[in-house]
Amino acid sequence: MNSIQTIFNQPYSILHLLPYTNNLNLTNRQQKMSELSLIKNITEMSIIALKSFIKGNLINFDALVGENLCQIRAYKNIHLANFWLNNSENKKKLMRAVNTLTVYKIKIDAVANKWEKLVNGLKTYDKSLDGHETIEEFINRTNLYIELSEDIIYLISCYFLTHFSIKDSYIPVAINYQELSSKFTVSRHRAERLIHRYQLLVAKFGCDFIMKIASELPFSEWYLHLLPSLCQLSDVDRYVLPCHIVSEIILEHCIKKNIPILFLFNRVNLTQRETVYPYLLERYIF
């Protein structure tokens, strides 16, 4: 648990998109070359993710995060779209973030090419190539450290999880680890760690979002007193909140902000034990 908390006590950066803690020890040139390749692949997908969000393709951010509630992500995504896409200045900032990552990707290519030449030219031990250092030290030494905002990390994580999901009737039901391993040229174990990291990020940011909107409600003091004790780590270290109180907070927030609500009911005839045709209630604007 302490290692999980440590992740969120640090400035958000490219390191948060890597599947391990910042003190991971790299012990040889092969490991370091592998990390450069992984960072390059992540950056390429990050650029695609942000471009997709700018186009308003929110369906590409329907992430699969285990026991974490889907209504949290749906409501958070709506708010992010409203904040980033319905304001011209914010949209420009997001486009600048895409440009920054594009330049960053070019920089990664240059560093990777330089390292490849050094590795091919030096067959014996070299401290610069083979010396022990943490992943954070390596990133800083190669000038590849870049800060990222919480929203950008969240969007990238959601896109990543959605892209590599297996869907049933357009609904994510599992992760396609084989596709991820093949596309990124990583082991199954590494693919699982990468997915777990992104699920962890999305779950934590989602719970934080619920606490934020709860603070805007009339009974905010009661919610803010209760929510921290209800927010727990699951057995796979993902942050979770109970369904009932989350749904209550989202509904109350919709009412307070005059957000249209669409209710869908599926009524069941218990006597005949058959499903009656679903009907749709009219849209209520509170």
The termini sit apart by 41 Å
Beta-strand fraction estimate: 5-15%
What's the overall average pLDDT, rounded? 88
Q: Can you count the beta strands? A: 10
Helix-residue proportion:
55-70%
Coarse shape? elongated
Q: Regions with pLDDT < 50 over 5+ consecutive residues?
A: 274-286
- The radius of gyration over CA amounts to 22 Å
| Strand-pairing-aware structural class | mainly alpha
Count structural domains: 1
Largest sheet: 2 strands, antiparallel
Count of separate DSSP helical elements: 11
Order of helices and strands: HEHHHHEHHEEHHHEEHEEEE
Placed side by side, the strands forming the largest sheet appear as 1-2
Layout of helices and strands:
Blueprint: H1 2-7, E1 25-26, H2 29-54, H3 70-85, H4 88-121, H5 127-130, E2 133-134, H6 135-141, H7 150-163, E3 165-168, E4 171-175, H8 177-184, H9 188-214, H10 220-230, E5 232-233, E6 239-240, H11 243-256, E7 264-265, E8 268-269, E9 274-275, E10 279-280
Antiparallel strand pairs: 1-2, 3-4, 5-6, 7-10, 8-9
Helix pairs in contact: 2-4, 2-7, 7-9, 8-9
Describe this protein's structure.
The chain has helices at residues 2-7, 29-54, 70-85, 88-121, 127-130, 135-141, 150-163, 177-184, 188-214, 220-230, 243-256, and strands at 25-26, 133-134, 165-168, 171-175, 232-233, 239-240, 264-265, 268-269, 274-275, 279-280. The strands form 5 sheets. The chain has a two-stranded antiparallel sheet with strand order 1-2. It has a two-stranded antiparallel sheet with strand order 3-4. Helix content is 58%, strand content 9%. It has one domain (2-259). The chain has 286 residues and is mainly alpha-helical.
